[in-house]
Amino acid sequence: MIQGSCLCGAVRYQYAGELGVITICHCSDCRKAQGSTGVAAAVVEATKFQWTSGAQLIREYASSPGKKRAFCGDCGAPLYSRREDLPQVLRLRMGSIDTPIQATPSAHIFVSNLPAWAALDEDWPRYERQEPGRR
Ligand SMILES: [Zn+2]
Ligand SMILES: [Zn+2]
């Protein structure tokens, strides 16, 4: 069972299925929606997905015709996206998952328009925590 929640913890869910394909999407809509380089999202089966608290707080924004992006109305944390023509599937925002999972992304997608600050440079320094000098 996979469990997850929003930033404020009011919205909680559990998922009894397997995680499907995981992608990291860098399209401009995902960048805007996250305020970041993009979003890691996993395909999940809607029938095995259940809200355990806070469902009334969920807001859905139609970012394009037939496509909804959902977030907690209190804290703004992104939760999933869905397409009205694919009601059996949610694209769960991986950052909302609380259960440790081993699955890894299969691809970065929509990389053609990545801004320089979001480029995927494997040579950049990496730190376990904040970069040196951060206050
Ligand atoms: Zn919240
Ligand atoms: Zn996207």
First-to-last CA distance: 38 Å
Our Rg estimate from Cα atoms comes to: 16 Å
CATH class: Mainly Beta
Regarding quaternary structure, what we see is single chain
Shape from CA axes? globular
Fill in the CATH topology: Metal Binding Protein, Guanine Nucleotide Exchange Factor, Chain A
- Supply the CATH architecture: Beta Complex
Structure annotation, total helices: 1
Helix-strand sequence: EEEHEEEEEEE
Total count of strands = 10
Strand order of the largest sheet: 6-7-8-9-4-3-10
Proportion of residues in extended strands = 35-45%
Outline the low-pLDDT stretches: none
Mean pLDDT over all positions: 94
**Whole-number tally of structural domains:** 1
Structural class: mainly beta
Describe the structure.
By secondary structure, the chain is mainly beta. It has a single domain (2-113), classed as Metal Binding Protein, Guanine Nucleotide Exchange Factor, Chain A (Beta Complex). Helix content is 5%, strand content 38%. The chain has a seven-stranded mixed sheet. A three-stranded antiparallel sheet has the order 1-2-5, with no helix packed on it. One zinc ion is lined by residues 6-8, 10-11, 72, 74-75, 77.
Using brief descriptors, characterize the structure shown.
single chain; 135 residues; mainly beta; Metal Binding Protein, Guanine Nucleotide Exchange Factor, Chain A; seven-stranded mixed beta sheet; 10 strands; 5% helix; globular; binds zinc ion
